[in-house]
Amino acid sequence: MTLEELIEQGPKVKEKCISRGGMETISGEEYSTWLMKCSQKLLSDFPGKPLTNDFIERAKNANGNFSSEYDELMGILKSFEGIETNKTDLSIDCILSMVLNRFHKMARSIKNRHANRSTLLIKDEYDVQDLLQGILRLFVDDVRPEDNTPSNAGGNSRIDFHLPEYDMYIETKMTREGLTDRKIGEELLIDIGRYKNSCSTLVCFIYDPKEMLDNPYGLIKDLEKLSTEDLTVKVFVNP
């Protein structure tokens, strides 16, 4: 949703959630959701701006507050109209395709540093996550590592990255001895079941530096077929 659309939506939300009589206040789930979306939009498009920080702090206590607080928040939103954002024009799909399909090249390029200086060696999934997080932050402002998904059969599952602006989770895997195509598929199948009510897009990135997978294209096809109307599953295997 664009900033202009959020501004246009504001008066409609206010009208639904306002409580008249005496001092007018605005409260409700719809108002809270609108405030959250506005905060995320400003944080994504105008990170570090004083007015962005001001809006976010005010929005935390705005639900249930006087309508005059809404008017001031709306004024902040409108002050950003027409200002060029700090975001890249690339779509998130383009960014992910570029980053994940070239991940191995990046990992190889940092192995040999000048004067034998220390570097990040990709030995396991945690190393993959560290490097991937750094690259993603070049393009996406709000990258949240290791979030909790809703409990499933009494337990919580931790996902690697959450991109709230895109309602997207990213799960990473790195092949190793004993981690076969079938085993990875089974693990991701469980994850897909957990994520189906948590986001609209699940990206599965499988890093296979030693090309241990027998049939990566078959694995991609089988997992992406599990997409539903509510959850899109995208799978990348590299190299």
Automatic annotation (TrEMBL):
It holds the Pfam family DpnII-MboI. This is Uncharacterized protein.
